[in-house]
């Protein structure tokens, strides 16, 4: 049996390791200069939009919704074709999650479905850049109206839509730096926003809601040690050690993007003529960063192909079960059938191995196994 081939894997270089080790030799392990450096680097890749580094992509969503001020009585419209955190972090703030269906070709939030889901109670419209393909942010901006527009860009740092980089188009954009993502800090994430008010609220929530600025304190004369909490927050601070890894990974992001595009093109060229599958669609104006290669397996054969490839030592995955299928949402009254396009997309989706260190011979091994199955 050949070596097991995972569907995703981090790419960590000796330079990355040395960057982390260098921080371990300093006085700062957390909340120090490497955080500032990483946030500045992220901002450069997000069209100059200021960034707040946090402990995970899930934390980034939780922080973003906190910055938006959502709570009981508010609604958040989002896609079900996403990891559950896009919805659960809104629910944790007390908001009602309203799922709108997806485009049947791309799995991205459908603009007209989103429009139909909007009400006077909608506080945030949250789009998801599924698989690394940017959502139609220009159209969704118009749909959002008075609501805040959030882009869940866990898959898409380095991508662009209509010539604009991801991170520069929404009121709030969230990133994830999990090991399988486009760059990694082991665990980590970030919120970027052009709004000074939202930025301040995000930074506050990331750090327990602590207020150290005397000009904003209620009791500024208490003493030089004094700090206050005006709104509850959490500890979502990303340590300097991990930010150092992130800064070095940012330098390599263009090469990661290029290699992911090459792998995507190799799969598509070899599988487009296979009866029984459909290769991913790219919308005009999109420059994706392919976090996933979402092959569509037709005629109810997705599970059979999944098991066949796993039997061949190829680590395919399925992304994602529609978010409202999770029992935690079912127990709140959400029912299957709510978003038919998303459910059909899920029933067919199979993520093929996709990471920068994947060799051409590894890609060809996957292709051969798929073609043999059919």
Automatic annotation (TrEMBL):
Molecular function terms, GO-annotated: pyridoxal phosphate binding; transaminase activity
Keyword Transferase applies: yes
Pfam families named in the record: DegT_DnrJ_EryC1
Modified residues (N6-(pyridoxal phosphate)lysine): 181
Domain of life: Bacteria
InterPro entries per the UniProt record, alphabetical: DegT/StrS_aminotransferase, PyrdxlP-dep_Trfase, PyrdxlP-dep_Trfase_major, PyrdxlP-dep_Trfase_small
Identification of the protein by name: Aminotransferase class I/II-fold pyridoxal phosphate-dependent enzyme
Transferase in keyword set: yes
Cofactors: pyridoxal 5'-phosphate
Biological classification of the source: Bacteria, Bacillati, Actinomycetota, Actinomycetes, Pseudonocardiales
The family this protein is said to belong to: Belongs to the DegT/DnrJ/EryC1 family.
Species in which this protein is naturally found: Amycolatopsis suaedae
Active-site residues, as the UniProt record annotates them: 181
Keywords: Aminotransferase, Antibiotic biosynthesis, Pyridoxal phosphate, Transferase
Gene Ontology terms describing biological process: antibiotic biosynthetic process; polysaccharide biosynthetic process
